[in-house]
Hints:
Strand order of the largest sheet: 16-15-14-13-7-12-11-8-18
Bound molecules: nicotinamide-adenine-dinucleotide
Shape: globular
Distance between the termini: 46 Å
Structural class: alpha/beta
Order of helices and strands: EHEHEHEHEHEHEHHEEEEEEEEEHEHE
Number of strands: 18
CATH architecture of the largest domain: 2-Layer Sandwich
CATH class of the largest domain: Alpha Beta
Largest sheet: 9 strands, mixed
Number of helices: 10
Amino acid sequence: xxxxxxxxxxxxxxxxxxxxxxxxxxxxxxxxxxxxxxxxxxxxxxxxxxxxxxxxxxxxxxxxxxxxxxxxxxxxxxxxxxxxxxxxxxxxxxxxxxxxxxxxxxxxxxxxxxxxxxxxxxxxxxxxxxxxxxxxxxxxxxxxxxxxxxxxxxxxxxxxxxxxxxxxxxxxxxxxxxxxxxxxxxxxxxxxxxxxxxxxxxxxxxxxxxxxxxxxxxxxxxxxxxxxxxxxxxxxxxxxxxxxxxxxxxxxxxxxxxxxxxxxxxxxxxxxxxxxxxxxxxxxxxxxxxxxxxxxxxxxxxxxxxxxxxxxxxxxxxxxxxxxxxxxxxxxxxxxxxxxxxxxxxxxxxxxxxxxxxxxxxxxxxxxxxxxxxxxxxxxxxxxxx
Length: 386
Ligand SMILES: NC(=O)c1ccc[n+]([C@@H]2O[C@H](COP(=O)([O-])OP(=O)(O)OC[C@H]3O[C@@H](n4cnc5c(N)ncnc54)[C@H](O)[C@@H]3O)[C@@H](O)[C@H]2O)c1
């Protein structure tokens, strides 16, 4: 079998996960990595046994062997680098959020119109957990009746202290939103794909709980604790928290909150869909289980079990029941779906796919902007307004 040759740009926190996941899929060969911090890229290339290591984005993209490029750089570089990858005639797998603004994500959709054979995927990886795919199919088949309510949260604590710092704090890098764009977008993606409905109106309370932060004089790695004592005080312009009321196009209502300042919460994604017949609830930190709520009989605690999952979800589960699958496995499913699409010669916009597309990424950017606008203007915002 001819393996697909892959390059990765950005070998920071999430870059590592891309490297490991690519290595788990037999149909792929990780050919090269690149990072503006060449020493970091070199260390990773040596550790993971990657053949080539480049100093710049342009060098990696110019490598004729490479067919697909993963963009794992900070959000401010997504448009610029994705555009280069697409115009070089390569497939692109980008990190989310798709851009700093919806104008940027719209531009990427425009560019893609000239490259109909390009497969452009986005790493909204939580949706590819086997049980989420299973619940999606069960909800579509009517198992919980008509979805009435969708509620939950995505909570973290890694930016709780004023000394916590990362490029995500700064609009120059993160764009119009921090907490909603970075983690709320994952929750909204789950809400939309599980219900098969779109969020069309939002009403938000966005909060900057720490208006001033101590920015260290050296960059702090994502999720790492800052040990640098030298800092400057900076004014914060991006939200630490958002609480959002939602309306869906199928008539369902919802509410979610996202926070990066909730002590003790690490990657607490919780989502519940309450339908006319039953409810489903799932939490990412115990992602091998799902709860099903009933009114007239005992509730059920469902353990992921390949033997009794819906046929369409079986391809996204690999271990026997009782052997927990988690975040890494959802990520693997995501890349498996994306690369399967390429290998089968499928076309974006024509063939259905389970991985997130740039079109979906653009919609989530619009939702993010609507939430920020709603928070500023203190009113309901319809998606038509952004
Ligand atoms: N899908 C997920 O669950 C998930 C999780 C974490 C991060 N992310 C996304 O991944 C992206 C990166 O986040 P991160 O936490 O890994 O950040 P990070 O800061 O840890 O890593 C980014 C890397 O990009 C490199 N870089 C910066 N400018 C570059 C350039 N011009 N050329 C080449 N390399 C460059 C940096 O040196 C760094 O190594 C963000 O958009 C973030 O939202 C997604």
